[in-house]
Amino acid sequence: MIRGLEYYATPEPFTTWLFAEMAHQGVPIVGRLFEPCVGDGAIIRAAGLRPMEFGVDNTWITNDLDSRWLADFHFDAADAWLPHLAFDAIDWTVTNPPFTLAIQILERALVHSRVGVAMHLRASIHEVLKRGVRRHWMADNLPTGILWLPRFAYQRSPTTGKWTTDSVCACWVIWVKPGALGERRQFFKYAPISVIDQLDALTPTYRRSMDAMMAGVVLPSVDPRLLT
User: Fold this and answer.
1) Which of 45, 101, 172, 188 has the most other CB atoms within 10 Å of its CB?
2) What is the extent of the structural domain holding 49?
3) Model confidence pLDDT, tens digit, residues 62-117
4) Which residues share a beta bridge with 190?
5) Which tops the pLDDT comparison, 4 or 26?
6) CB 45 within 8 Å of CB 106
7) Model-level pTM greater than 0.85?
């Protein structure tokens, strides 16, 4: 079921800000783009809203473990990287992965993405844990940029049924391969008022859509790449 596979749709303003900011940084997210946890295609749809700015010739390759979602592949991105990546160059990986598997997916993405990786993650990814891979991984693999996002209720609480926010905000964490940014290295930005206002305006529609998805009423009936 979607619940068991950690389905959290990415709000449209979060994705459009990512693409706009990376274009502003001089490293636009363009080319062959990989979405290993595509879900209902929310990131791809949002990225297609402003094609002249975000890359009119982008090609998306998609994957999702849940075979009910329409995708090019249905592999577990945390276990073994998709076999086609050995033959087809990927410029960027852009995704909102299951948080508990984020590092495993990220490690593979960094190897196979020629330009960079952008992941929508809980802010606690930056917490240094006493045990496990996050004891050292982030310190050994410093991100190029962080885009801090406003707190948002992605789902209803499974216990109360109410829309509740997470205990922390989320952020886009971005790694750009050496040389792609020139002499400019790290950047850290906070969501502008425009993103917050867009999020507020979108929330009612987002919640209706999520309620339908979680009730099993709606699943994508067309390839999400065609919705851009």
Assistant:
1) 172
2) 3-215
3) 999 988 889 998 888 887 666 666 567 899 999 999 988 999 999 999 988 999 99
4) 148
5) 26
6) no
7) yes
Q: In sequence order, what E strands does 68-220 have?
A: 90-95, 113-122, 145-148, 155-156, 163-164, 170-176, 187-190
In the block, residue with structure tokens 């410029």? 91
Q: Report residue 113 as tokens.
A: 């993405």
Q: What is the tally of structural domains in the chain? A: 1
Q: Find tokens 């982030």 and name the residue.
A: 138
Q: Is residue 9 classed exposed, middle or buried when 0-12, 13-18 and 19+ CB atoms within 10 A define those classes?
A: middle
Please report whether residue 13 resides in a domain.
yes
Residues 34-45: b if buried by 16+ CB within 10 A, e if exposed: bbbbbbbbbbbb
Whichever domain contains 208, its CATH number is: 3.40.50.150
Each residue's pLDDT tens digit, 95-104: 999 988 999 9
The highest-confidence range among 118-122, 159-163, 217-221, by mean pLDDT, is: 118-122
Query: Is residue 223 domain-resident?
Result: no
